[in-house]
């Protein structure tokens, strides 16, 4: 009897798993659109709140809709006492992504709303998470420096308020805008690993908090969102722009993955990198500091070396990691910043998955031992 060997798509590479109307990544033209709008234009003209609204409702808000959306987000910002206490008890040695994952799970456990899974109920939960997660990240950042949390300020935008809660001050507009651009670029990217994780959990008809908790776990890994932290660790390890080429040769010879480079879909450059790189260069110029100039030179030298040696281009995590460092965030807080943005894309996909749900359950080709008897005891 002959058996046909099925074609295996390890890592689901090249597999089209479903349709989506949320975003499209077109590697051939190096383009990315959210609900049809080029991400470059959104990053140039919109606030992060407008982009969140677009992802969730399918259209950009008119002024009245934006006003109402902003008011709702601002009203939901304060963390309740129990959540704050639970988070303060987590060991300071755990990674901030563990804190965030626990926070979402805890906020979900505390939510008294019945889980009817309707789009309206899920959007209400998504807005709660969008509004609360910055407070979680900021309080965690401060406790690691022995500082008390700062209450949110409802007069500030999403991005401004986050700086206020982390550092007790809002930096100049250039820095806030650079941060906001990173949030817009990180918001959504089709069926990436964390979004697909959220869709898998949702496909079992589990709840939104469970899907987001799982997605945070997937984003933490260094092959996905964790790469923005790994980029800064790598730059710190190299230390000197003059060493970039030799360091890279040794790392490649040792089969190391160079963090912040390469992408499953983009093979000739990530559509988001030029915008993020430009914004980061404005931060570098603004700093006017020799250490920053040196770090920027190292960042550029490694990018050139990687492109010339391997033809592999940076992904969004490469400029974003440097930008977050220049904004004053601690390295382990970088991936939580990604979560504060990607919560918008995850929530949109959870709603879309439920709208035409099919349980996600692929097949496997078994290659273990043949059938055999259990030895007698
Ligand atoms: C926001 C985001 O999540 S963007 C991604 C962030 N992740 C990173 O930056 C981590 C570093 N990058 C990588 O590990 C990879 O590029 C991934 C995981 C992102 C994509 O990988 P895949 O699509 O599975 O491609 P794959 O790993 O098969 O790479 C193809 C080839 O390029 C090489 N390659 C790809 N990326 C890198 C890299 N960063 N460093 C060194 N080599 C690389 C691989 O070694 C492989 O070479 P081979 O064909 O000689 O074996
Ligand atoms: O699309 C991917 O595989 C990873 C990525 O860039 C993202 O999630 O933003």
Automatic annotation (TrEMBL):
<keyword id="KW-0012">Acyltransferase</keyword>
<keyword id="KW-0816">Tricarboxylic acid cycle</keyword>
<dbReference type="GO" id="GO:0050440">
    <property type="term" value="F:2-methylcitrate synthase activity"/>
</dbReference>
<comment type="pathway">
    <text>Carbohydrate metabolism; tricarboxylic acid cycle.</text>
</comment>
<dbReference type="GO" id="GO:0036440">
    <property type="term" value="F:citrate synthase activity"/>
</dbReference>
<dbReference type="Pfam" id="PF00285">
    <property type="entry name" value="Citrate_synt"/>
</dbReference>
<dbReference type="InterPro" id="IPR019810">
    <property type="entry name" value="Citrate_synthase_AS"/>
</dbReference>
<keyword id="KW-0808">Transferase</keyword>
<dbReference type="InterPro" id="IPR024176">
    <property type="entry name" value="Citrate_synthase_bac-typ"/>
</dbReference>
<dbReference type="InterPro" id="IPR016142">
    <property type="entry name" value="Citrate_synth-like_lrg_a-sub"/>
</dbReference>
<comment type="similarity">
    <text>Belongs to the citrate synthase family.</text>
</comment>
<protein>
    <recommendedName>
        <fullName>Citrate synthase</fullName>
    </recommendedName>
</protein>
<dbReference type="InterPro" id="IPR002020">
    <property type="entry name" value="Citrate_synthase"/>
</dbReference>
<dbReference type="InterPro" id="IPR011278">
    <property type="entry name" value="2-MeCitrate/Citrate_synth_II"/>
</dbReference>
<dbReference type="InterPro" id="IPR016143">
    <property type="entry name" value="Citrate_synth-like_sm_a-sub"/>
</dbReference>
<dbReference type="InterPro" id="IPR036969">
    <property type="entry name" value="Citrate_synthase_sf"/>
</dbReference>
């Amino acid at each position: 009897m002959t058996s046909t060997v099925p074609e295996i798509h390890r890592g689901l590479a090249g597999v089209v798993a479903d349709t989506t109307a949320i975003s499209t990544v077109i590697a051939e033209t190096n383009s990315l659109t959210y609900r049809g709008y080029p991400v470059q234009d959104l990053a140039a003209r919109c606030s992060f709140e407008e982009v969140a609204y677009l992802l969730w409702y399918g259209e950009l808000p008119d002024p009245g809709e934006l006003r109402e959306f902003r008011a709702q987000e601002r009203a939901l910002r304060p963390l309740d006492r129990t959540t704050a206490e639970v988070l303060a008890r987590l060991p300071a040695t755990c990674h901030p992504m563990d804190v965030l994952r626990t926070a979402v799970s805890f906020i979900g456990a505390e939510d008294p709303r019945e889980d009817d899974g309707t789009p309206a109920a899920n959007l209400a939960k998504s807005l709660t998470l969008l509004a609360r997660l910055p407070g979680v990240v900021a309080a965690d950042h401060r406790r690691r420096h022995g500082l008390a949390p700062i209450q949110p300020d409802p007069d500030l935008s999403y991005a401004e308020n986050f700086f206020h809660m982390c550092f007790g001050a809002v930096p100049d507009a250039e820095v806030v805008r650079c941060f906001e651009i990173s949030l817009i670029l990180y918001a959504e990217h089709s069926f990436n690993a964390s979004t697909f994780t959220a869709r898998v959990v949702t496909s079992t008809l589990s709840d939104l908090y469970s899907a987001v908790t799982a997605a945070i776990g997937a984003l933490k890994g260094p092959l996905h969102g964790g790469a923005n932290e790994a980029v800064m660790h790598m730059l710190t390890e190299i230390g000197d722009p003059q060493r970039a080429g030799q360091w890279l040769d040794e790392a490649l010879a040792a089969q190391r993955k160079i963090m912040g480079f390469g992408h499953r879909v983009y093979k000739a450059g990530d559509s988001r990198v030029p915008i993020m790189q430009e914004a980061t260069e404005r931060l570098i110029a603004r700093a006017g500091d020799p250490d920053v100039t040196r770090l920027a030179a190292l960042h550029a030298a490694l990018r050139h070396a990687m492109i010339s040696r391997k033809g592999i281009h940076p992904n969004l995590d490469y400029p974003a990691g440097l930008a977050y460092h220049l904004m004053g965030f601690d390295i382990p807080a970088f991936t939580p910043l990604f979560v504060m943005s990607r919560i918008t894309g995850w929530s949109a996909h959870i709603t879309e998955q439920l709208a035409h749900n099919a349980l996600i359950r692929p097949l496997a080709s078994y290659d273990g031992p043949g059938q055999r008897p259990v030895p007698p005891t």
